[in-house]
Amino acid sequence: MEEHQHVRKGVMAAHDGMIAPPRKMFRKKKSVLPDLNVMVNGIVKGSVKELAKAITFIESNADDHYKYGQDLLQKLLPYTGNAIRIGITGVPGAGKSTFIESFGMRLCDAGHRVAVLTIDPSSSISGGSILGDKTRMEQLAKHPNAFIRPSPSGGTLGGVHRKTRETLALCEAAGFDVILIETVGVGQSEFIVRSMVDFFMLLALTGAGDELQGMKKGIMEMVDAVVVNKADGTNKSLAEKTKREYNQILHFLQPATKGWESKAYTCSALKNEGIDTIWTMMKEFRDVTEKSGVLIERRRYQTKEWLHTLIMEKLKNHFYRHPYVKEQIGQLEQDAMNGDIPPSQAAEQLFKQVYGTE
Amino acid sequence: MEEHQHVRKGVMAAHDGMIAPPRKMFRKKKSVLPDLNVMVNGIVKGSVKELAKAITFIESNADDHYKYGQDLLQKLLPYTGNAIRIGITGVPGAGKSTFIESFGMRLCDAGHRVAVLTIDPSSSISGGSILGDKTRMEQLAKHPNAFIRPSPSGGTLGGVHRKTRETLALCEAAGFDVILIETVGVGQSEFIVRSMVDFFMLLALTGAGDELQGMKKGIMEMVDAVVVNKADGTNKSLAEKTKREYNQILHFLQPATKGWESKAYTCSALKNEGIDTIWTMMKEFRDVTEKSGVLIERRRYQTKEWLHTLIMEKLKNHFYRHPYVKEQIGQLEQDAMNGDIPPSQAAEQLFKQVYGTE
After folding, report:
1. In terms of domain of life, where is this protein from (chains A, B) (predicted)?
2. Which of chain B's ends, N or C, has fewer CB atoms near its CB within 10 Å?
């Protein structure tokens, strides 16, 4: 394929061979960075190889790599926005991997190009997912129309957030028209995923009551659909009952998306049953929200919120990493909690030291 | 009463007469501020007059008044924490004023001292509540054991938040053992009230479904009880049905307070029916959470969160009020929303200008 030849000819070649030079030696040299236009062209033509390389720059914590990734992103922005962005959450054991494999294969076979991203805040602590995504979705990983990228590891939650968002944009520029973002349901990952997708679904197990008890607050009010998985064999009638229970709850809640009634569905990812219905529903969601203008409004709002989230992240880092704050905050928290100092005075004391003003 | 004589003798006298001097003339003079120890003693002895005066300092935007209010708060902190703090929310028309009047009268008659505060973020725009709290709760306003203070007006939402929180502390220092904080349900007021009370209740009308549709997301998951009001006359059986509906929903949700099952109740504030049951339930809540340690943990957590909320408020103000940010933010938002610039670059550009670093 043409784009692969591009890669081989370009400066990327140095990294492809088994005897690539140690990266640190070259970190400061501009020459090691691939030509920007070559990369942009490669990605726009759909080269997975160059996409993967671009993502490593986006994910890199080295200054020059990060800067290069941002330049790339800037040039690729005009090619983004054409995919349907789908977020998938669910408790562990709900069968998210099996669902994504079944759903992804169905779409890839129909000619769609599907990118699968994961947000796993715990990977910022453990340094990586416990189970590799490619082992979890064996068939899909081999499909030429699929691209699977595990959660970025290392760094802060804010960093994981940024990297996944920017990876999504790169995937769109590379022509992937369906982006699936899976959340492992740890920490604030559902809220992060909801803030970057068009459509958000909960993959559920039978027995809504018990499951909801263990679920994070507010999840049910963020979902555009609940899909009760494992609706097969002896479990089928129970799944139908659970679907009714979820519909009952959804009926009481405000819809997550204006003009769209969130409903419950059943499927069996294992038996590939009900998958088509879900895709049809998602396409309908896209049509409805595109026509009403809700989709474009949501995306614009998400971008604006994202800008302010980034600003807040930066403000927090700037403040909480200040030596005086690091030294004093613990004691001041204790003093405030013990009722020895009003919190407003504690805040003022810190602020005065850092910014020279109250 | 002794504390009132204190007031008359003190420097406060200048403000009591009809011919008080214009305040601006004296704003910079320290002499106009009442003696701190006199004020502290007055409040600790339960003087409503001095409490009200102290609150005006807490609410003042003048630097020396604010500073004086903070000094007062610092000295009064050891006397705070002894009240049960109850938050009350509900859609307009649910009968919050009638409920507070009925509930408050019941407690005042039994010897409790009840302070009623209101959080109305719209008062920061309109400059005051549309309807005075004292006209809304005519009987209670006259009761010697009651103290009613409307929402602080003017200033930012953050300001309203701080003022109400500090007013709560002053009321506790003055010996009020029941603090009722009412939210008018505008903006983020429910979340603000939830963050400063022990017990949070939703006052509801009959017809749970319709009402919940119009309610803010996440409210149901914050409440320790739902009280269906207006359970009288022909409305009684419908209220019972609504109670069952709310119980059904509450059953599906995570409890707002660890170790406490949030349930629905009915009452008629107008007919004074069911009010005792609600107070008994609240006392049980207090007993249970005191014994389990959940109450003290909640309060410590609330104080810690409050410190960080104050810090974030200050950080935001410091950044967003910077001339460069004020000038550029609108255009950068537009550029980001239009896909002309990655949000991360927009954030960096602003940050570099304000703090000289990315």
Report:
1. Bacteria
2. N
The residue type found at B231 is A
Residue A12 pLDDT > 50, yes or no? Answer: no
A178-183 and B84-89 as β-strands: parallel, antiparallel, unpaired? unpaired
HSE, side-chain direction, 13 A CA sphere, residue A218: 11
Considering only the beta carbons, identify the residue of A78, A311, A336 that sits closest to B307.
A336
CB A118 within 8 A of CB A151: yes
Per CB-CB distance under 8 Å, the chain B contacts of A158 are none
| Strand (E) or helix (H) holding A182 | strand A178-183
Phi, psi of A223 (to 5 degrees): -90, 140
- Rounded-to-integer distance, Cα B128 and Cα B120, Å: 9
Chain A residues closer than 8 Å to B253 by CB: 212, 217
User: Looking at residue B239, what is its pLDDT?
Assistant: 93
Which of the two residues, A259 and B251, has the higher pLDDT score?
A259
Q: Which long-range contacts (CB under 8 A, 24 or more apart) does A281-290 make?
A: A281/A225, A282/A84, A282/A86, A282/A199, A282/A225, A285/A198, A285/A199, A285/A224, A285/A257, A285/A260, A286/A84, A286/A198, A286/A199, A288/A259, A288/A260, A289/A198, A289/A257, A289/A259, A289/A260
Kindly identify which residue of chain B lies nearest to residue A246, measuring between CA atoms. Answer: B252
pLDDT of residue B68: 94
Closest CA to B198 of B81, B99, B44, B78: B81
Q: Report pLDDT digits (tens) over B194-246.
A: 999 999 999 998 865 666 655 666 788 899 999 999 999 999 999 999 999 88
Closest-CA residue of A relative to B298 is A337
Q: Which of B230, B147, B144, B217 is nearest to B181 (CA)?
A: B147
In chain A, the residue whose alpha carbon lies closest to the alpha carbon of B334 is A304
Look at B209 and A341 and tell me if their CB atoms are within 8 Å: no
pLDDT reading at A207 higher than 50:
yes
Residue in A351, A320, A348, A330 with CA at minimum distance from that of residue B73:
A348
Most A CBs within 10 Å, among B315, B316, B332, B338, to test the A interface: B315
Q: What is the structure's pLDDT at A132?
A: 54
| Side-chain half-sphere CA neighbours of A69 within 13 A | 24
Q: Which chain A residues are within 8 Å of B351, Cβ to Cβ? A: 311, 314, 318
- Chain A interface disruption, residue of B195, B337, B345, B354, most A CBs within 10 A: B337
DSSP string, A280-292: HHHHHHHHHHHHH
Helix (H, G, I), strand (E, B) or coil at A344: helix
Question: Does pLDDT of A147 surpass 60?
Answer: yes
Query: What distance in Å separates residue B41's CA from the closest CA in chain A?
Result: 19
What pLDDT is attached to residue A271? 94
**What ipTM does this complex have?**
0.80
State the average pLDDT for chain B: 85
